[in-house]
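Batch manifest, entry 17 of 40.
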Amino acid sequence: MNSTSLKRKFKERKLYFAENNTIRIHRAISWLESANYVNENDDLSFISLWISFNACYAVQMPKDEILSAKENFRVFLKKLVKLDTEKRFYNLLWNQFSGPVRLLINNQYIFRPFWDFQRGEIIDWKKQFDQSVEESMKYLSNRKVVDLLEVVLDRLYTLRNQLVHGGATYKSEVNRAQVIDGKNILNMLVPLIIEIMMDNEFEDWGEIYYPVI
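Output type: structure tokens
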């Protein structure tokens, strides 16, 4: 579904949602619309899509229970995949986007330890990278949806950091391949995530991190 059809569906069903879910989905759709408006601009479209994704999964937690972004991803993804009774994530990753997914997995420039090595924080990144690629290929061949989604989003999170924290030039040719592939993957993933959340309106998606005050 695109942002227009999701917005229509949301208007029809939002009376049945809890307030937290209403706000969360409304925000996510608004940033998905933003991504559509700037679709020809790969950098801005990717950033808008990531914000939309962030609106879906970010939760408020007690300070002594704060999870890392990676752990938050996994908790959220496990719930989504469990609720995806039609196996849409599987179809997306294995049938529609297996090529771009493989390219992302094999791209060292969006592998966080590669940059940790450049900063002198670790002594080697290649061994970790090779291991990550090998494990990811096993996820692909064994159809481990949650594990593969986690790897893809971890790679895209590094790309997100490069863009949002000023670590890349606007419209740079250096990172075009990963930005375009990342945008295209998120452009399919994010609407699916929003739709599954709307189809499970009674599910507890957690307290929103920035409530409306």
